[in-house]
Amino acid sequence: MNMLDLIYKKRNGEILQKEEIAFFVNAVTNNSVPDYQIAAFLMTIFFQKMNKHETANLTEAMMNSGDIVSLTEIDGVKVDKHSTGGVGDKTTIALGPMVAACGVPVAKMSGRGLGHTGGTIDKLEAFTGIKTDMSIDDFIQRVNDIQLAVAGQTSNLAPADKKLYALRDVTGTVDNISLIASSVMSKKLASGADAIVLDVKYGSGAFMKTSADAEELAALMVSIGEKLNRKIVALVTDMDQPLGYAIGNTLEVIEAINVLKGKGPEDVTRLCIELGSQILVLAEKTDSLSNARNMMKETINNGSALNKLKQFVQLQNGDTRLIDSEESFWSTKFQYNVIAKESGFVYSINAEYIGKAALALGAGRTTKDSVIDLNVGIILNKKRGEYVNANESIAIIYSNDNGLISEAEKWIEQAYHFNQDKPEEVEMIQKIIK
């Protein structure tokens, strides 16, 4: 077996066998094949596509290319949640404590962000001193102690994916559904969860721009999970406007805290409850989604989720005072109101443009070495369907550099579109795929 034969075979539209895909992934992992042949093979996949069996075999080979985390020492069904990413997506920070307060172990491995804001690990650093770099033994012990731990991904988790993604990024082969699905699922499966809940987003602020594309991706990832003997469910959700009102690392953490206090935005709260309800059913805490929703809501009402967040932050050496007094532990040098130039209903908000505004302020990374300013960001004052008067504030910019505000303001102004007619309400959760 050699790489050139595989390139010819896929170029001609033939189906690759499991052994052939494993040969390719091993060659990538061991650096025994040149980048130009890997790139050529990726391009054949891009144009000829893979069926769901090939995609599952690619995922399994990538999963086995590095460490497989064993969570067998953690009691109960371990359920992981993954979001395909969006603007203002802070659900993990609220969802984890809610699920843990229901007695389901949350052993979450997350990454840093490259884009408009940081990833979950970056956001958690709003809690000064928090440690997310830990041994697997410490990770497991923390989950057994309080049902919740969040750690950075190990460097040897699905290493084939890291190399393949880097090449996809520079060869125009990122947006192929099989390559996307195998990239996401290989890391999730290697992380050791028994069951997985996926939040697959679509819209202007998501990688998948249409609900149909998101549904196709969600269905493929569910089929991969099932083939590899995992319980799995996917929610297809709207990301045509930012989730919640806060965009920026500490601002998003504060909004997640407010969800646990019972005063968070309706959309963030509802999404957390729906994702958590699916988790509780997969974890066999109940066989009824209705009961699961009530259990999730009760963790907010009785304060157990907020208390679980405090336990989690404290156990990972973070400062918990932000949870009780956000004003004392968060500030920026400048605040600037973005003013509406016309009256009307907010007809749409381009989430991608809001993300670019946050990035312009320093809330995210343009390269992996960029330094994030955790405190900067944007608070939206108006969302889709709300009425705005001319000269009313539609958003507040929080910045530590006065010179960055004008670019952020331009992106926000371009993001908002007004109309004299109120837009139809968009259902946030479009579909559930099992």
TrEMBL record:
Record flagged with keyword ATP-binding: no
Q: Which domain of life is it from?
A: Bacteria
Q: Where's the Pyrimidine nucleoside phosphorylase C-terminal domain?
A: 345-419
Task: State any GO CC term.
Answer: cytosol
For whether the record's keyword set contains Transferase, the answer is: yes
Q: Which UniProt keywords apply?
A: Glycosyltransferase, Transferase
Under SUPFAM superfamilies, the record lists: Nucleoside phosphorylase/phosphoribosyltransferase catalytic domain, Nucleoside phosphorylase/phosphoribosyltransferase N-terminal domain, Pyrimidine nucleoside phosphorylase C-terminal domain
- Provide the E.C. number(s) assigned to this enzyme: 2.4.2.2
Question: From the UniProt record, which GO molecular function terms apply?
Answer: 1,4-alpha-oligoglucan phosphorylase activity; thymidine phosphorylase activity
Pfam families for this protein: Glycos_trans_3N (PF02885), Glycos_transf_3 (PF00591), PYNP_C (PF07831)
Give the GO terms filed under biological process for this record: pyrimidine nucleobase metabolic process; pyrimidine nucleoside metabolic process
Q: Which InterPro entries match?
A: Glycosyl_Trfase_fam3, Glycosyl_Trfase_fam3_N_dom, Glycosyl_Trfase_fam3_N_dom_sf, Nuc_phospho_transferase, PYNP-like_C_sf, PYNP_C, Pyrmidine_PPas_bac/euk, Pyrmidine_PPase_CS
Which reaction is catalysed here?
A: uridine + phosphate = alpha-D-ribose 1-phosphate + uracil; thymidine + phosphate = 2-deoxy-alpha-D-ribose 1-phosphate + thymine; 2'-deoxyuridine + phosphate = 2-deoxy-alpha-D-ribose 1-phosphate + uracil
SMART domains associated with the record: PYNP_C
Q: How does this chain assemble?
A: Homodimer.
Q: Family assignment?
A: Belongs to the thymidine/pyrimidine-nucleoside phosphorylase family.
Role according to the record: Catalyzes phosphorolysis of the pyrimidine nucleosides uridine, thymidine and 2'-deoxyuridine with the formation of the corresponding pyrimidine base and ribose-1-phosphate.
Q: Which PANTHER family match?
A: THYMIDINE PHOSPHORYLASE
Name it: Pyrimidine-nucleoside phosphorylase
Q: Which species expresses this protein natively?
A: Tindallia californiensis
Lineage, opening ranks? Bacteria, Bacillati, Bacillota, Clostridia, Peptostreptococcales
